[in-house]
Specification:
alpha/beta, 29% helix, twelve-stranded mixed sheet, 30% strand
Length: 750
């Protein structure tokens, strides 16, 4: 095992960087620059390492040749033979590139020499670096990044006719080389954009389409569209075709012709702006491109795609006077690299405020400010304690829900002498205002003063490790579910972005060591929490406070009130679909997604007469569901503040491996388990703590047809629960009585 310090030193010494990427039929050629101080023979032992982002498949490619460039850097060329790996690449969604570096004593000796490590004897150096000298086969994988933003790699995309997918190489925001598999689509880029004094927007760009040589003909049609946030077309224009022989030259090794891939267009922005002359808030419009080409004598239009802009395509702001009012017109490159058009009111005061705000945001995002902020938190934690101050937070400040809400409401009603304050994410403050809750914006200066002096912290998820817990603070961790899938230290492999297995477990231990109290819903959970969290302080085995509501308010009046508030019909039965997230489905660190495998159209056709379905996605899943075509049948309640109310109005639950079914069981209503990927989830991602397939309190099905049939069977039984339900309830729900909040508060707050 290599310590973090050793990794840091070795990465500084090796310094691998991509300098060139080119393609030819059947192979990619990647040139990698290395530190000139490294021995040439050692570089030849390094390999290119390509790993799918979920860690299930890897491929190694040896160094082909090593030379020196004009700056005396070593440049190693690696040939990726696509014939042996191309089909495998299409079987995963994301792949990342690394160099695999063998770590041995000779490398460590060079680390000492080059980096001027403190002069200590060799044994101490080896121990300090965390590398055992006997481990000759130890390897370190270093993420492969480019020296600088290189040319877009769209031209080198591969197409698989059988799967009808395309494999696209690309550089991430941090210039790391990766691959992704996508549905076949046109790729459009803006190479140049400028607004003239007369508010004419001049655009120049090109498109790439890797299926056929449709871009070799001058009669291919390119249409640009401007759409609003709902994808409604505001305006559209036919673009002029421009010759791009340079693109054909760049892709000639692949035999592709992009002679007429270019386009240009001049757009008068004044008529567009006049449609939004009365806007009082900034309005964004987005550019899309549609490609129409001739295929076998017929015209085919490819679906409109967002237009990506090169990094330096930013045109600045222009002011126009309309109906006596000034408007700000901006064509800009968004965070997702797409080109957008912004129309906003303009005053000198607003412009000055905006400039100051942007400046402050830049400062806040800087590493220096972050370091100062974290240090300030540590210093303020030594201030005198506010004895009766309790800080609450639920799901990173995004919700007023779960166990913290139940504890808060009990204390509000029974312990008025305490000052109760919520930590709220800045994007969700409206929610806390609606409930008239005392709150403070998370990470604001006021939050800093309150969190560091509070006598109590109450939260249901982990807090950042830089938040050093003051000695006077009592930290109540409520957690947020009964464990079915493996947690923390019990996980064999971690597939989450931005971390690895060792780092994840180390950080989790550091966090759990700060907890003074941990709530457990049952003896089964207590045993797992103690082991998986490495928790050695006070376990409160009380049942979950959030479930008090299910016992105290389970009546027709409450159900009808919630349905009316949600705009749901009273005369139809309600199905709640609440799946969990998948560790290996994500866009990036902290940004997870979910692929809906439930066929809602078929559900609507078979059940729409008597049922509606409400969708509740896990809090880590970032996607917004588009349910417009299922209007009146499917409803998105992913951001509904408290899932307990959704339990209450639901006649049955569909879930998978989410811990929601442990809570829903308190209502003694039927459940269906839609486990379409159970083998992958069980064997590769998480694994289960108990015999889920044999003891789940409802049928397990793997298809939408199976779900529909299970619901019909439940209906025929008069909505009776499964034969396995009673044993399940006794094991997991027997502590629940409607008084868990009281038990917790009397234990922690004396």
């Amino acid at each position: 095992m290599i310590s973090e310090q050793a990794e840091k030193y070795i990465k500084k010494l090796i310094k691998p960087r991509i300098t060139h990427f080119e393609a030819s039929p059947g192979q990619w050629s990647i040139s990698i620059r290395f530190n000139p101080e490294i021995d040439e023979q050692y570089i030849k032992r390094i390999e290119l390492f390509v790993c799918d982002r979920f860690g299930d498949a890897t491929f190694h490619f040896p160094i082909d040749t090593v030379t020196k460039d004009d700056d005396e850097f070593w440049v190693a060329k690696v040939l990726v033979q696509l014939s042996s790996v191309q089909q495998h690449f299409f079987n995963r969604e994301f792949w990342d590139f690394f160099v695999s570096v063998p770590v041995d004593q000779s490398l460590l000796n060079q680390v000492y020499a080059e980096l001027d490590v403190d002069q200590i004897d060799e044994a101490e150096k080896v121990s300090d670096l965390g590398v055992n000298a006997e481990v000759e086969s130890c390897k370190l994988n270093i993420r492969l990044r480019a020296v600088k933003p290189l040319q877009p790699l769209d031209l080198f995309s591969l197409y698989d006719e059988e799967k009808d997918k395309m494999l696209v190489p690309f550089y991430t925001k941090k210039k790391a080389l990766s691959l992704r598999v996508e549905e076949v689509h046109v790729m459009a880029r803006i190479d140049h954009a400028a607004i003239s004094r007369h508010f004419m927007l001049n655009l120049e760009g090109h498109v790439v389409f890797p299926i056929a040589d449709v871009l070799s003909k001058p009669d291919v049609q390119k249409k640009l569209m401007l759409v609003n946030s709902d994808e409604e077309v505001i305006a559209e224009w036919r673009a002029e075709n421009i010759e791009r022989l340079d693109l054909t030259e760049a892709a000639q090794s692949l035999g592709r012709n992009y002679d007429w891939a270019g386009f240009s267009l001049a757009i008068d922005l004044k008529p567009i702006a006049s449609q939004f002359s009365d806007v009082s808030e900034p309005t964004y419009l987005y550019f899309r491109l549609e490609l129409t080409h001739n295929k076998n004598g017929m015209l085919f239009s490819e679906r409109p795609v967002r237009i990506l802009a090169r990094q330096k395509v930013i045109t600045g702001r222009h002011i126009i006077k309309m109906d006596g009012l000034k408007k700000s017109l901006t064509v800009k490159r968004n965070r997702n690299n797409s080109l957008a058009f912004r129309i906003a009111p303009y005053t000198l005061a607003d412009a000055a405020k905006g400039k100051v705000r942007r400046g402050l945001n830049r400062v806040k995002k800087s590493k220096a400010f972050t370091a100062v902020y974290h240090r300030t938190f540590q210093l303020l934690s030594h201030l005198p304690v506010k004895q009766n101050l309790v800080m609450f937070e639920s799901f990173f400040g995004r919700q007023y829900s779960c166990n913290p809400r139940a504890i808060y409401e009990y204390m509000r009603d029974h312990y008025p002498e305490y000052q109760l304050v919520w930590s709220a994410n800045g994007n969700y403050t409206e929610l806390f205002e609606q409930h008239q809750l005392p709150y403070v914006k998370r990470f604001s200066l006021k939050w800093l003063m309150l969190m560091t002096r509070a006598n109590y912290w109450v939260t249901n998820v982990r807090l950042p490790l830089w938040m050093s817990k003051p000695k006077h603070t009592v930290y109540l961790q409520t957690w947020h579910g009964t464990p079915l899938k493996r947690l923390a230290l019990d996980m064999e492999e971690v597939h989450m972005p931005g971390t690895n297995t060792e780092k994840y477990k180390r950080n989790f231990l550091a966090e759990s060591s700060r907890w003074d109290y941990l709530i457990s819903p049952n003896a089964y959970s207590s045993e797992i929490f103690s082991r998986a969290f490495g928790f050695e302080n006070t376990m409160i085995e009380s049942g979950y406070p959030r479930n008090d509501f299910l016992y105290q308010k389970n009546n027709r009046e409450t159900i009808d009130t919630i349905k009316d508030r949600c705009g749901l019909p009273r005369d139809k039965k309600v199905i709640l679909y609440a799946p969990t997230w998948r560790d290996n489905q994500f866009y990036g660190k902290g940004r997870y997604r979910f692929e809906l495998d439930l066929d809602l159209q078929r559900m609507k056709e078979n059940l729409g007469k008597d049922y509606i379905i409400i969708m509740r996605m896990h809090y880590l899943i970032a996607d917004q569901l588009d349910l417009s075509e299922y209007d009146g049948f499917a409803y998105d309640f992913s951001h509904y503040e408290d899932i307990s109310e959704l339990y209450m109005i639901s006649d049955l639950l569909i879930t998978d491996y989410s811990s929601v079914f442990f809570d829903f069981a308190n209502l003694k209503r039927p459940m269906v388990f839609f486990t379409y990927d159970i083998e992958d989830y069980r064997d590769h991602l998480r694994g289960f703590y108990f015999e889920f397939e044999q003891k789940a309190p409802g049928p397990l099905v793997t298809t939408t047809e199976g779900v529909i049939q299970a619901i019909h069977d439940i209906e025929a039984s008069g909505f009776a629960v499964s034969d396995r339900f009673d044993a399940f309830f006794e094991k997991f729900c027997s502590l629940e009585s409607g008084h868990s909040s009281e038990k917790v508060v009397k234990t922690v707050f004396k």
